[in-house]
Amino acid sequence: MASKIARPLLALVATPVLAALLVGAGTHGGAATPGAPGAGDPYFPDSGNGGIHVVHYGLDLDYTPTTKNLVATADLTVTATQKLSSFNLDLSGLTVDSVRIDGRRAAFSRAGNELTVTPSRALDKGRRFHVVVAYSGVPAHVNDPDGSPDGWIIQPDDSVFVASEPQGAMTWFPSNSHPSDKSTYDVEVTVPDGWTAVSNGRLRDRRSRGGKTTFAWRESQPMAAYLATASIGRFQTEQYTTRSGLPVYNAVAPSQAAAAKPVLDQLPAVIEFESRLFGRYPFDAAGSIVQDAPDVGYALETQTRPIYDRAPRLDTLVHETAHQWFGNSVTLTKWQDIWLNEGFATYAEWLWDAEHGGPSTAQRFATDYALPETDALWSFPAGDPGDGGHIFGKPPYARGAMVLEKLRQTVGDRDFFAILRAWASEHRYGHADSAGFIALSKHISGKNLDGMFATWLYGRGKPATP
Ligand code: ARG
Ligand code: ZN
């Protein structure tokens, strides 16, 4: 006891509880409190964090495919959105070697997928700071509630398929991993010569030294963490500029190259088609990543540069490209609204097909409507999947597209495309939700659409009439 009292005051101040008390009583108004461990999304309660906005991620990854070891630093530019005694980041597996805030060592602890960082002094609301996390280890993907692998997905040939929707970002970098936060990114990946690392946005630099090559990528428009990638393979690469001046970078697994080529070559035409319908393409780069990863079982609209688990079909390329407007530029605030991504991207496929000799969108609607009540299409409402295990089920995709076709038939072509374009431009680089889409549709059309959305977006089972 006596020895404890004799400890210098500084040591006492360093204990977190006392430090919080002392700092909380400071002159900056209000007590400092811990940032919440989640962003408050009922589908994925631990995803994201409270009290912080990440302005920018500077990721520096050094990866050795043969050992699967990652040595990395993440430099996050963060704004405190409340007065913080501590805050969390999402991180799954890996070993944290140190955490610094504006250059000073900060205390940290780990529990589950939460990394809690406690600065030596509270961080005032509105303050902008750098948190630098040094970490390492063999990354392991997570399995989503629907059973699919998510995050840093290592392939049998040592290549890495990196796709993180909805929660895999935490498997490869400490993140505020919820779509309600968007940030710009600099991603630098160092790999042994012969390997290529592909991320989002533009390739700023590529340099080789001592048997290793570093690829420096920059995504300069805001991006949700789930749309970040740093995929690694022995790719064949191709770079060109479209007629409208957009730089395209493709990376393709050699086994897929022949099958992928005719489809990837359509990307400029697809971007032109969708720009005509949805307004200008929102990003300053484009391209594709095609891997040989059939066990993954899905493609993802990674920002500016979708990733495919095999040579894609054209309708899949059309779908992932449409997500650049719907999902990537205009982003969800909660996973329940996933139809705003998947219904819109599916409808883009319908529009493309209708324009290229396929059935009309009205015919697609009719064909889907004819499916029996027992079909998965009617198993839950497109606008209310119920939990994270159903967000990639059939209703948000197919029935989500039916909602849009129903809207089109109700308001007419002119207002319908005006709504899509206004949606893309009013929320460009931002966030939106279903209530906002309904309000915009009513505003532009001047029609009361409540009954239509209640039936088609939120109604249970198969609507009685088409
Ligand atoms: N958004 C992707 C697409 O529709 C699907 C992602 C599926 N991800 C998953 N973890 N099941 O193209
Ligand atoms: Zn999709």
UniProtKB/TrEMBL annotation:
<dbReference type="InterPro" id="IPR001930">
    <property type="entry name" value="Peptidase_M1"/>
</dbReference>
<dbReference type="GO" id="GO:0008237">
    <property type="term" value="F:metallopeptidase activity"/>
</dbReference>
<dbReference type="GO" id="GO:0008270">
    <property type="term" value="F:zinc ion binding"/>
</dbReference>
<feature type="domain" description="Aminopeptidase N-like N-terminal">
    <location>
        <begin position="56"/>
        <end position="227"/>
    </location>
</feature>
<dbReference type="InterPro" id="IPR045357">
    <property type="entry name" value="Aminopeptidase_N-like_N"/>
</dbReference>
<dbReference type="GO" id="GO:0016285">
    <property type="term" value="F:alanyl aminopeptidase activity"/>
</dbReference>
<keyword id="KW-0732">Signal</keyword>
<dbReference type="InterPro" id="IPR014782">
    <property type="entry name" value="Peptidase_M1_dom"/>
</dbReference>
<dbReference type="InterPro" id="IPR042097">
    <property type="entry name" value="Aminopeptidase_N-like_N_sf"/>
</dbReference>
<keyword id="KW-0862">Zinc</keyword>
<comment type="similarity">
    <text>Belongs to the peptidase M1 family.</text>
</comment>
<feature type="domain" description="Peptidase M1 membrane alanine aminopeptidase">
    <location>
        <begin position="309"/>
        <end position="456"/>
    </location>
</feature>
<dbReference type="GO" id="GO:0006508">
    <property type="term" value="P:proteolysis"/>
</dbReference>
<keyword id="KW-0482">Metalloprotease</keyword>
<keyword id="KW-0645">Protease</keyword>
<dbReference type="InterPro" id="IPR050344">
    <property type="entry name" value="Peptidase_M1_aminopeptidases"/>
</dbReference>
<dbReference type="InterPro" id="IPR027268">
    <property type="entry name" value="Peptidase_M4/M1_CTD_sf"/>
</dbReference>
<keyword id="KW-0378">Hydrolase</keyword>
<dbReference type="Pfam" id="PF17900">
    <property type="entry name" value="Peptidase_M1_N"/>
</dbReference>
<keyword id="KW-0479">Metal-binding</keyword>
<feature type="signal peptide">
    <location>
        <begin position="1"/>
        <end position="19"/>
    </location>
</feature>
<dbReference type="Pfam" id="PF01433">
    <property type="entry name" value="Peptidase_M1"/>
</dbReference>
<protein>
    <recommendedName>
        <fullName>Aminopeptidase N</fullName>
        <ecNumber>3.4.11.2</ecNumber>
    </recommendedName>
</protein>
